[in-house]
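Figure 2 data, in text form.
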Amino acid sequence: MELWQLRTFTAIAETLNFTKASEKLHLTQSAVSHQMKALEEELGVPLFIRAKSGVILTDAGRIALEYAVRILNEAEEMRGKVAGREKALAGRVRVAAATQALVYLFAPLFEEFMDAFELVELVFRTTVSTEQTVDDILEGVADVGFASFAVYSPVLQVVELFDDELVLVASKKHRFAKETEISIKDLEKERWILFERGASIRRATDDFFKKVKVEPEMALESNDTYFIKLMIEHGLGVSLMPSWTVREETKNGKLAQIRIKGHQLKRSVAMVSLKGAQSAPIRAFIEFMLAQKEKLQSSALD
């Protein structure tokens, strides 16, 4: 097999569409199809299942993708070192995380990284849940992800970055707004605006309700952080959210943060990537983020 076949294979795996992959690679669709047919014949197994909207990786395809990414990363690293360019990092790092984390926590740090490594392209992939973030890493469509619950896998490198805390968020006009702490009993008659099931915040919220034996009356569900905050501001309900997502609204007097007496709803946020050979840009990104742990912790709990 040839490196160009592996590049084509990874492009299809990222887009899950032969047409999009051909456009990305500036190849004809017939050339892309021919390369994949040759690669599948050489490996002796199908790598994709054709679907109406594109393709789906087979189990063999997922395994092949893991090796293809490693081979391409090692080839890029070899090319850089042989050419004496190991200090001038160039390449791409694909980052996956929930939308709100990318916007509120990581964006300023990513800007710093891009200023420091001008030849490294950061590609962002937003996910609706930590499960999807981890799947993106395992399936090779992302290089580094950020997960907010415990992740265990023999093929993953998981490094804790910081802790954050969920707080009760209410409108400034709400009866809770003047309180610094409330009791569990105070929550029982409230209407709730929650993240959709599958989101890591929703999982933490559901675990809390189960622990304190509260059955929340739902006002609405959404994965749009801005929309949830707007609905809270208009008095449609209360919610449990990371304190960093409502920092500006709290300062501006639009929302109030209240803690729940006897309960500290902390979560651990980790950085996830595949073990084994990684390209120099990916290693540089991971090292950069690890160096920002104190800054992230301060930002998450400030």
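Caption note: The domain at 164-267 is CATH 3.40.190.10 (D-Maltodextrin-Binding Protein; domain 2).
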